[in-house]
Amino acid sequence: MRPRRPGSRAALIGAAAAFVVAAALVSVFVGAANLNPVAVATAMAGKVPFLGVHSGLSPLDSAVLFQIRLPRIVLGALVGALLAVTGAGYQGVFRNPLVDSGMLGASAGAGLGATIAIVYLGGLGPAVVPVAAFTGSLAGVAIASLAGAIGAARGSLGSGTATLLLAGIAVGMFLTAAQTVVLQRSAQVLQQVYSWLLGSLSGASWQQVIEILPYAGVSVAVILLHGRHLDVLSVGDDEARALGINPQAVRAIAIGSCALAAAAAVAVSGLIGFVGIIVPHVARRLAGPSYLMVLPLSLLGGAGFLVLADTLARTVLAPSELPIGVVTALIGAPAFIWVLRGTRAVDT
Amino acid sequence: MTGLAVQDLFVTLDQTQVLHGVSCQTPPGGWLCLIGPNGAGKSTVLRAAAGLLTYGGTIRLGEADLGSLRGRARARAIAYVPQAPVLPPDMLVADYVLLGRTPHLGYLSRPGRRDRLVAEAALGQLDVSQFTGRRLEQMSGGERQRVVLARALAAEPSVLLLDEPTSMLDIGHQQQVLELVDGLRRSAGLTVVSTLHDLTIAGQYADELVLLNAGRVAAAGSAAAVLTPDLIAQVYSARVEVRKGHDGRPVVAPVRNVQ
Lengths: 348, 259
Ligand SMILES: Nc1ncnc2c1ncn2[C@@H]1O[C@H](COP(=O)(O)OP(=O)(O)O)[C@@H](O)[C@H]1O
Ligand SMILES: [Mg+2]
Hints:
heterodimer, A: mainly alpha, ABC transporter involved in vitamin B12 uptake, BtuC, 0% strand, B: alpha/beta, Rossmann fold, four-stranded antiparallel β-sheet, 12 strands, 33% helix, 27% strand, binds magnesium ion
């Protein structure tokens, strides 16, 4: 089933990078406005300075390509990479392969933040929703972490990661309930809130790419640099400490950067589930359990996966769009069953 | 070359005082073995020495106070093999042993060529080189125990803490592992602090035995001094006879109660 020896590291990373490029190419050419491949190629070449190639696209097609489709592909790749790396990072922290990027109150916090923005702050314009979702997501994780720390200090569930996970579930439920209360008071925005909750990249712009890039860059860099530490955590807190690693510090750093990554993703895309579980799982199947490989493979795999999912989202029911969260759930839920099939009992 | 000295060690776990002033020590290159019945506090002494517990009293590593050493410096000097190591089932043996190099790596650096060579050498010393490409779950109990020891040796420690290192090994592999550890302490000056439940074997390898009972030292000294029928009866509630082996060391044999 699984290869006895994991494939060569460079070859796997190369294959994952090729997958991203292939997904992006598919996405460029598939869509409502059918773009001519040769024209697209010359148009792209035309953007390279000093090459002096003239675009073969009409001004309209050129606008579709550069202002609509490309930013959407880049944003989708970015969001997919963030969600998958976050999922993988949390799985290392909690030593549990079934943990997703939206846990610890991140999704619920983002949902509440976005809802509050839509219901109460609509007058400030549409730009306030991503900010509120970002803030809500980080606040959700902060509250869950605080609750988990209090629970772990008073309770007796071992190293505290199980307590934190449970606290995250409770905080998530509470925030979702609070969101429902807010919504009950203003049913007229229901449609808008739900379409945000189900996730979408339809409003993608270069502006959004630029806005989340700093958060994405910092958080992903920090997570990738801690792959080795996550590997050490897999032998348990005692042995990790005996090896000179401070497990609490590693967990705090990893949770902080994962929370930032998830918040950046959620701010521009809404709630997109399952990417953070499925992609790291496939990475593990291909490369073995070391986070030195699982993290970079998840980064690339998540990028390609979400670009493909988004291509489906905007084409299967064209001209109308499926929410991308629905697409990932339709693919992800059955795949999740498959994950469960291949998962052994884990301690948290 | 570093010795270990434990002085007046007090440990409280979950509001229960587990150690009540334990003192013991071993010179550089010595082998100190903690014996005593289940629950006597043997593992707790090792865990304190590994820096995993808050304790009262002092533990000295050579000239240095253990409490003054930060995590990585302590981990470079002291390798710890717990009684029940956590073995991630999917992890490859090679990657697991490489984890032993963790204390030598800078915060953001990754294992390099030398780290791999040291890990390979450790695998070879424990006769498990042929398993490097296997997952830990594919190993037998005895093979796992040797792999765990290989991880400890990969750290190139000056003090090795071994909690029941041979509990899963057959008599041949027990001897092989203990001889290897003994050889390392003779050749490289490795200091060993272990627990061993087999009293005869403990008496053969250790040059200092410390018999713990209910968190206190009941007796300490050479094997001949500690392994006496009276002390064993008193501390373990066991009926044994002690003979002299041909090397002069005691052989502890249980005696059945025949009516
Ligand atoms: N976390 C803990 N909380 C409370 N008591 C503990 C804990 N761990 C061990 N103990 C108790 O400490 C005593 C010594 O344990 P241990 O050092 O493991 O004994 P040994 O290794 O000699 O069998 C035992 O009575 C055990 O029940
Ligand atoms: Mg013990």
